Amino acid sequence: MNIREYMKDNFLILDGGMGTLLQEAGLKPGELPERWNVSHPEEIVRIQKSYYDAGSNVVLSNTFGANGLKFDDDELKQLVEAAIANAKKAREESTAPQEKFVALDIGPLGKLLKPYGDYEFEDAVSMYAKTIKIGVAAGVDLIFIETMNDSYDTKAALLAAKENSDLPVFVSNAYGSDGKLMTGASPAAMVAMLEGMHADAVGANCSLGPDQLVGVIEEYLSYASVPVLLKPNAGLPRTENGETVYDVYPPEFSDSVGKLLEKGVRIAGGCCGTTPDYIRAVREKADKLTPVPVTKKERSLVSSYTHAVEFGKEPILIGERINPTGKKRFKEALRENDIDYILGEGLKQGDAGVQVLDVNVGLPEIDEPAMLLNVVKELQAVSDLPLQLDTTDMTGMEAALRAYNGKAMVNSVNGKEEVMNAVFPLVKKYGGFVVALTLDEDGIPESSEKRVEIAKKIIKRAEEFGIDKKDLIFDPLAMTISADTKAAIATMESVHRIRHELGANTSLGVSNVSFGLPRRNIITSAFFALCLQDGLSAAIMNPYSEEMMNVYFAFKALHDMDENCMEYITYTDSLPEKSLPLEGKVIDEVAIKPERSGEVSQSPLQTAIVRGLKEKTGNLTKELLRDEKPLDIVQKEVIPALNIVGEQFEAKKVYLPQLLMAADAAKAAFEEIKNAMASSGGEKAPARCPVVIATVHGDIHDIGKNIVKLILENYGFAVSDLGKDVPEQTIVDEVIRLHAPLVGLSALMTTTVPAMEETIKLLREQAPWAKVCVGGAVLTQEYADRIGADKYARDAMETVRYAEEIEAGLG
Amino acid sequence: MGNLSDLIFEDLTGEEKTVPRYLEYEEPVFSLEEALRYSGFPMDKAKAVACGETEDPDAMQRIEKVKELSKGQFIYKVGYMTSPITFDEDGFVVLPFKQHSEALKINLSGCKKAVFFAATIGSGIDRLIRRYERTELDTALFLQGFGAERAESLANAFNADVKEAAKKLGFMAHPRFSPGFGDLPLSVQVEFLGMLDATRRMGITLGESYLMAPSKSVTAIIGLEQEIK
């Protein structure tokens, strides 16, 4: 019988632990269990048969660690094929009466993926694919991905399974005692991502006993529309007379598992410490119970690598600020590849209270797909908010969806056949919560009836692609009332009808409604309130608008979505006092005293920078910009302040942390100055010479390098930062591209100094004009000389001085 | 933490290699001096601020800020095992794996068994550092320092428990020794994490150049020498 069919009406009982049984059979510590598939097939078959005999429907092949990182291609093929042959033999030999299936077992690679580790996501996909292809060709009934403790790694494995077979795929994660994966994901986040990618069953295994997993499993049951699986340990291990024993025995184990079967778990077995006795007990328990039907949960979720955001319960704010439309400073950042600025916009919106970030980096003169991919990777490394990918370029959309760590929002599809045919297959493959605009080949209908018709058509087409209504969110389009005063009514009616007649979610870019009118915030925020009342699920909006945030918090308080009005109260506490004049805001509690430097001649701005008071520096700069030219402020205020700190640092009167605080404060001043220059469109700062910096190949430390970058930038150098773990040739190519006279290389470990030496060698061959300055914890003058560097810099200031020297020499 | 030392005590009594055991610690005692030192303050300055000789309100504000930011981000996990150790004629130390290291040999001289452990405070702090590296480098520096202090303090707490348990059994614990110290190469992390099953059980992974992720993780060997009565 087909396993998908069988699962519909029956519990599926899995097998139990393998490791302990193999050790009992003589597996030595340090010996790879996968090799036993070939060296001791009879032992593997005996153990697997004992599981079938005990009542398992599914036995996992002995391939948990069978991957291309541990074995070469030939051995991998041999081991996986032998493993599956063993499991099939066990199935043949067992006379137990239940339906029996063989699963290809896939365990984690044991590598942490970038950005937190050093392994590429796509390399992980290929590595999993290797094992999966062999296993699928050898003939199994399903693929079982298990013990995954990182969401990104889980995505890589599931993607590899989906791209290389049509078999059912079960995905099981290992949760810590805090109910989260090692890298932070909640069960709801995993359900969102895995269901979006069409896993056939989801759940938890390993790490804890069944009782400690109750919370995790209940969360799965409340979100998942596919069967939930559970494969816990036999409690917690301890040593007794040199042997490992677990503290939960078969009767208690099956009682605990049985209770979760009654709550809705459909697939159960055991992990570490469990034996055929445990499985027999679970089988007996299951035989006395009727499976709880698996129902559609109709919960609309998006997720990041840590958590899920649900639509349809409380209004969701989607930050609109990562978007170049009408923003000179943002366009400039895109052209200059200033990713930090874009990340800053994302983080600031998160602090302002949005739950999702829209990401639109489209600009005609840049490579949008490449930029989108880069921004998505960088943003998801620093922010835990789910992202809404906003592009019309389907190549860019696919690359970004693929690299996204979670279930993204997709912005957007509409009623045009061509667009649906392009967007829905991507959503089907990678998962996604899709914004659907109610327009089609004939444009945007004026009436709400027509818009609802288009929505219905989109729901039907999505279904044909296998995408549920719960994964659609309709944007019935806000049009400006300055052109047609009936426009807002049509939109509000559409929101109401889509919500109440079609039972679907809605989202609006609310600010369009006031286009062309004065004091737009007044109209926009009132419209937002009315739409919320009509059932709007989400708004793409500007979280820095006080009027909008007022409406949001007031609406939640008035609709019983804010217990004891606490969110509202906290929000109002954060608002500035209205009665104070503008100047009143600038002065904060820390009095400006030039105490540290002892120099009375410092201006307030200089003192703020020297003391590292970031906010004050920003505010004071803003004030000065009213009367002074941006570049004058740089010359007369910021650079002298940096020099004061720099000199104090060199004289060892202040230390690295203070130097950094000052540099960060100066950055705030530069940010204001850049804003002012971008909006005036006039003068540009004269660029100093380019400097390429990187942490060398194999080394993933980059805080030291980042410090050097920040200080160099403060001093006006055009720094091209290639990041960490940078291949030798990449560095050389960038130096050639910019014809950079100076390269800064950082290495923190003795093991990566050879990579530094190799980089210098290549630079000498291909870019002989470039001077090389090296630094990092393990480097010394002696080392630097030995590897042929031009300069060893002990710290950031020494690098600045050297850069100035080099620049002066250019003439 | 008293019962933890009892657990360790139980493991130290045997002659055989034990299976790895995993512990979760309460928040270890905070050392301001170490946190400042790891954040880039020179040793004397860190000491002076920590014992109140010098005041540095700006630094203290940063420390308070990173404490607040990282609230709830830590897990304090330790995995450990004990094993007999020997030395062979070729100058190798025979641990559960065989390794040539003069420095380790000196550290372990007189020991017949040792405790091998890995400690980690989890990846939450790495995420925070990553975030602030891009936006507020000074905060990132203090997060880095605070994280390093947390990991070291966890290792210290475990080390103290081992010392106490060992003493009751008549053993003297040697100073702990980590891969990367002296001539003990970082590459032994492979065997080290492997025997503790630390990737699967604790989420500690190794990169290409044998660096651990989460970065705020510590591995070390504590030699146990029988005291002469």
Describe this structure in words.
The complex is a heterodimer of chains A (811) and B (229). The longest helix of chain A is centred in the last third of the chain and has 25 residues. Chain A is built from 31 helices and 25 strands. The relative contact order of chain A is 0.05. In chain A, helix 24 packs parallel to helix 26 and helix 28 packs parallel to helix 29. The N and C termini of chain A lie far apart (81 Å). Chain A has 811 residues and is α/β, with parallel strands linked by helices. Chain A folds into 4 domains: 285 residues, TIM Barrel (Alpha-Beta Barrel); 275 residues, TIM Barrel; 99 residues, Methyltransferase, Methionine Synthase (B12-binding Domains), Chain A, domain 1 (Orthogonal Bundle), CATH 1.10.1240.10; 121 residues, 3-Layer(aba) Sandwich (Rossmann fold), CATH 3.40.50. In chain A, the strands form 5 sheets. Chain A has an 8-stranded parallel β-sheet. An 8-stranded parallel barrel of chain A has the order 13-14-15-16-17-18-19-20, surrounded by 6 helices. In chain A, helix 7 links the parallel strand 4 and strand 5. In chain A, 48% of the residues lie in helices and 13% in strands. Helix content of chain B is 44%, strand content 21%. Chain B is of the alpha+beta class and 229 residues long. In chain B, helix 1 packs across helix 7, helix 2 runs antiparallel to helix 3 and helix 2 crosses helix 7. Chain B is globular. The model of chain B has no long low-confidence stretch (mean pLDDT 88). In chain B, a hairpin with a 3-residue loop joins strand 4 and strand 5. Chain B contains 9 helices and 10 strands. Chain B has a single domain, classed as NADH Oxidase (3-Layer(aba) Sandwich), CATH 3.40.109. In chain B, strands 1-2-6-10-7 form a 5-stranded antiparallel β-sheet. Classes of the chains: A alpha/beta (811), B alpha+beta (229). At the A-B interface, strand 8, helix 13, helix 14, helix 26 and helix 27 of A face helix 4, helix 6, helix 7, helix 9 and strand 8 of B.
